[in-house]
Specification:
Elements lengths: L2 E11 L4 H10 L3 E12 L9 E3 L3 H12 L5 E4 L5 H14 L5 E4 L4 E2 L2 E2 L5 H12 L3 E2 L3 H8 L9 H12 L5 E9 L2 E8 L4 E8 L8 H14 L4 H19 L16 H7 L2
Parallel strand pairs: 1-2, 1-4, 4-5, 5-8, 8-9
Antiparallel strand pairs: 2-3, 6-7, 9-10, 10-11
The structure holds 3-hydroxy-5-(hydroxymethyl)-2-methylisonicotinaldehyde (PXL).
Length: 276
């Protein structure tokens, strides 16, 4: 069986990060180990007074135990990190568990709609930049790309501009940057750059004018799962766009739930068919 480890927070209520990544990657038939970076009572997007337990100190202990056990992973995938201090710890984790024959995905979760998430600082942004340099794949949205590249946020980025941004993102040091939230007419999608072969790939679906929490985590989870299963960059991109779009469509009839996250559970059954 393929094995992945994902390092991100648990938001106890509100569907994102580990509560999305674990079911999705598992549903793809991949054993999924987790390292929680923090435990929050809810995600931070739109909720107030949420609790936040920082688990920074646990991460090196978990890593040391796993090293002692000789565990190995086909994929290492990181998302929301709870503090700048975690960047160095995750970087050390990459040094211990990264190998020639596995790969690292960094989803530099930092913000959306041009703004950083609550509590995120310039220190975390520069830490994420360093982490991206160690990754094979990075999956920023437009907001995260603008912070990583230290350029103004651009809304409605088209495919041509996304190619310029992807070249700059590759210069951070990763081989395959993937940019989400790209617009093409009334479509919405993602563009990837294979900097090893100098090739661009893209995938689009109809645009839905609705912000739904956790869709970036759905995208990154399906993408990571697909690459773990040996799919090529273009196919992984297509699957991630398609499944994320299906989750958004499935959520729209449940308008009162949209605030908390997507109804991705309704689509998990079809995910197994999509990856065949
Ligand atoms: O979906 C990204 C994410 C992950 N984890 C936490 C968040 C967010 C986005 O707001 O608040 C805790």
């Amino acid at each position: 069986m393929k094995k992945a480890v994902t390092i991100q927070d648990i938001s106890c209520f509100g569907k994102c990060s580990l509560t999305v990544a674990l079911p999705i990657i598992s549903a793809m038939g991949i054993e999924t180990a987790v390292i929680p970076t923090a435990v929050l009572s809810t995600h931070t997007g739109g909720f107030r007074d949420y609790t936040f337990r920082d688990l920074t100190g646990d991460i090196p202990q978990i890593a040391a135990h796993w090293k002692q056990l000789g565990l190995a992973f086909d994929a290492v995938y990181t998302g929301y990190l709870g503090s700048p201090a975690q960047v160095q710890i995750v970087s050390d984790f990459f040094d211990t568990f990264g190998r020639e024959d596995n790969f690292i995905v960094v989803d530099p979760v930092m913000g959306d709609a041009g703004r950083l998430y609550a509590g995120f600082t310039d220190e975390l942004v520069s830490g994420m930049r360093r982490l991206c340099a160690k990754a094979d794949y990075i999956i920023p949205n437009m907001t995260e790309a603008s912070f990583l590249l230290d350029i103004p946020y651009e809304e409605n980025t088209n495919e041509e501009r996304s190619r310029e941004l992807l070249r700059l993102l590759a210069e951070l040091g990763c081989k395959y940057p993937v940019l989400t939230g790209v617009r093409r007419g009334d479509e919405h999608g993602a563009v990837a750059f294979d900097s090893v072969h100098g090739e661009f790939m893209s995938a689009f679906c109809p645009h839905v004018d609705r912000q739904i929490h956790g869709t970036g985590d759905i995208f990154a989870s399906v993408f990571t799962g697909a690459v773990t299963l040996g799919k090529g960059l273009g196919e992984a991109l297509g699957l991630a766009v398609r499944f994320t779009s299906d989750c958004i469509t499935a959520t729209l009839p449940h308008a009162d739930e949209v605030w908390y996250g997507s109804c991705f559970e309704l689509c998990l059954g079809s995910l197994t068919d999509l990856i065949k």
